[in-house]
Amino acid sequence: MVNQSLENTLESLSGILDVDLLAKRDSIEKFLEEKGESFSLSNEKSFRAFVYSIFKDQNLQRKLDAMMQAKSKSVDPLFRKTFKIWNVLPHRLIKNNWDLIKKAAIRYHLPNSIDQELDFNDLLSVGNEALMLAAEKYYWNPRGNFPNFAWNILREKIRDDQAKKHPVPFAIRKKLKALGELRESFYLDDKIVRIADIKKELGLSEPELKDLLKLEAIWGHGQDKEVDVEMDELEYEDLSPSAVAMLIQYEDSQIVHDALSNMDPKNASIIEGIYFREKSLRDQAEDMGVSLNALKKSHKKALLQFKEVLSEMDYDY
Question: Which of 94, 108, 101 is nearest to 165 (CA)?
């Protein structure tokens, strides 16, 4: 039995894109069936599967991409709906975020004296696979900002690759963990960890400390690494429903800057890092030298203070 709604949609898109999409009807219906979906313009998940099935044909993809770009100014409702989904198709996400691979490889590459260039190229290959995985998962379950979403997977996959090639001895892992606990205790007491404090508390010589800090930059604080992580298990806190979280996305707002200037510097830096610089919670925690759980608590405190400052400014949010 012919799905008239699908037939009409394919006919309309064919006219807009100047491509015969009706010829793909059978393969589209088969793909939708495999996904457990029946075509519906009003169902987001169903329409995503529909758009995916059209563009997964490699022979047509380049031509369709060119037509989508050429018609990007079209105000046709069906085209606008399709265009929005097209922009987050896996191949589009990969193309627009390719630089993340090199950034991750540079940040987490552990230099060595043997085959350094080959080792770095291997990381780029690992990063490529991770970005493809992230793009595919994000398309079917989008949430938050894709670069942040993808960075979590890139980081874990590249770190795992480096850990296999450069295993950390147990004794060093213990020191990394001790260093992490030291940083966290100082942070919670609003103190700055100085080199002299680390050397004294951990009983390290200057060369030992230098080597430990290099390892910390790659492996963090000695905790077990996340390997083959499912996207749902990665830390990405979605605060989009929050009125305050939505407000502070407006970086140029004078109200926001006035509020931040009246906050505790540490709390203000957390807000700026997560919302203005679009860092994930994990990256923010790493940059501050604290555990993820400690950062979560501080994040909540920072948002609470932000609300209080807004109230003092008589801002109604």
Answer: 108
What token pair was written down for 1? 């039995």
How many degrees, rounded to 5, is the angle at CA 185 between CA 182 and CA 187? Answer: 105
Sole residue written with tokens 């960075």: 151
> Helix, strand, or coil here: 213?
helix
Contact 112, 61 (CB under 8 A): no
Do residues 272 and 222 lie in contact, with contact meaning Cβ atoms separated by under 8 Å?
Answer: no
Q: What is the pTM of this model?
A: 0.56
Q: Quickly tell me which residue has 């589209």 as its tokens.
A: 28
Please, what are the averages of pLDDT over each run of 10 residues along the chain (317 residues)?
76 90 90 89 90 88 91 92 94 92 78 57 86 93 87 84 70 78 77 81 85 72 43 36 46 67 88 76 81 83 85 66
CA dihedral (45, 49, 55, 56) positive or negative: positive
Question: Computed over its alpha carbons, how large is the radius of gyration of the chain?
Answer: 24
> CA distances (Å), 298 to each of 49, 76, 131, 294, in order?
40, 46, 30, 6
How is domain 243-312 classified at the architecture level of CATH? Orthogonal Bundle (1.10)
Residue showing tokens 């563009």: 55
105: its two tokens: 């490889």
Are 7 and 29 spatial neighbours (Cβ–Cβ below 8 Å)?
A: no
Exposed, middle or buried: residue 86 (CB in 10 Å: 0-12, 13-18, 19+)?
Answer: buried
The predicted structure's pLDDT at residue 178: 84
* Domain residue spans of the chain: 4-87, 94-165, 170-233, 243-312
